[in-house]
Amino acid sequence: MLVAVVILIASHFRVHAQEPPDSSAKLITRFPFTVLSGGVMVVRATLDSFPDSLNFILDTGSGGISLDSGVVDHYNLPVTPTDRMLRGIGSMRKISYVVNRTLRLPGVDVEHLDFHINDYNLLTSVYGVRVDGIIGFSFLRRYLVKINYDNNTIGVYAPGAVSYPKRGMLLNSTITGIPVFTATVADGQTSTSRFYFDTGAGLCLLMSQAFERDSAIFVPGKKVILTQAEGIGGKTPMRLSTVNRIRIGRYKFRKVPAHVFDDDFNVTSYPTLGGLIGNDLLRRFNLVLNYAKNEIHMSPNKHFRDAFDYSYTGLGIYLVDDKIVVEDVLKGSPGEKAGLQPGDVIIAVNNNINGNIQTYKNMLMEVGAKLKILILRDNVPLDLKLKVKSFR
Fold it and tell me: Is 263 exposed, middle or buried (0-12, 13-18, 19+ CB in 10 A)?
């Protein structure tokens, strides 16, 4: 099981209310989004007057807005270097911008945006869908945004007074670039801490190693496996287990998958924060993101009781030159025991030859499934058998 984590910390701004005191939030537009593995949301948009439709991840874990370097090169956009630093999972580096651009979403043009530039080739290969950029704080601070996972739509409203759904709760949050909120994690010990609210992370819970160690979260002798995640800094090794309980306000989740990593660049701001809670958990709520009021409203949706993903194969599969390629096989994993090797090209899983990486990943998430995998190795076809294990 390998997951993609997107968290970009480029800037921090305090959000101030912009509407007159008695105005109501008015609907500007509503448009669909596509859900990728881990609950990550992708929306379609265009840039400036260019006609090409682009794919953007909607990410509360981004402290700005960004474009893929390939898009910048394709459009020959002028680049402005800076000395500002971008911190992400596994890396920290200086960033450059393309400035004063317009993002054209269905029904609304968002003007005067400064996009920082990043390379999203790895995320594209993870999801099998081209990732052209990430939409974060620079967009979300201007509007009231409603995310509905029951029908996969996003509503964009002019900031103003809003009546929240009666069902649900207002989250105790602070928004200074990336929303931060309080949650309780319990296993061997119970710890209440602050976490990033991160819709761009395709996992449930990510803790820094320092937080996990100092809080003694895991029961001694807890089953832990090695895995990895992909983010803006490339591939990052992690440990994976479960925590007995996560509580967000009055909502409790049991046996939640939990990742732990060595936060070399202090992305999770320990000890101020314990880590982040990602969209494989947050997608179980319909959301109202009201940055102007420093408020997030959450109401359970039809996914609230979805089973968590406990599958484990130890495989890292990616879309490379329109081929689904095994790039990583973790030692001792079910994938290694099945005989899979880096460089193998997956042709079919259980006679499914549609070549869709999301379809194959979904099949590899079925705990207990016995899969027949047809691969090409050195242009020779081979049939292998893999049993999907559980890390619980």
Answer: buried
Domain span holding position 365: 311-390
Q: How far apart are CA 316 and CA 328, in angstroms?
A: 5
The whole model's pTM is what?
0.91
Secondary structure of 148-215 in the HEC alphabet? ECCCCEEEEEECCECCCCCCCEEECEEEECEEEEEEEEECCCEEEEEEEEECCCCCCEEEEHHHHHHH
Most distant CA pair in the chain, distance? 70
Give pLDDT tens digits for 69-122. 999 999 999 999 999 888 776 677 889 999 999 999 999 999 999 999 999 999
How far apart CA 72 and CA 74 sit, in angstroms, is 6
Partner residues linked to 6 by β-bridges: none
**Radius of gyration of the chain from its Cα atoms, rounded to whole angstroms:** 21
CATH number at residue 347: 2.30.42.10
The number of folded domains in the chain is 3
Residues 7 and 154 in one domain: yes
Task: Check whether residue 113 and residue 258 sit in a common domain.
Answer: no
Give the residue among 21, 14, 291 at the shortest CA–CA distance from 161.
Answer: 21
- Give every CB contact of residue 213 below 8 A, 6+ residues apart in sequence: none
164 in a structural domain: no
> What are φ and ψ of residue 375, in 5° steps?
-125, 165
What percent helix, strand, coil does the chain show, rounded to 5?
A: 10, 50, 40
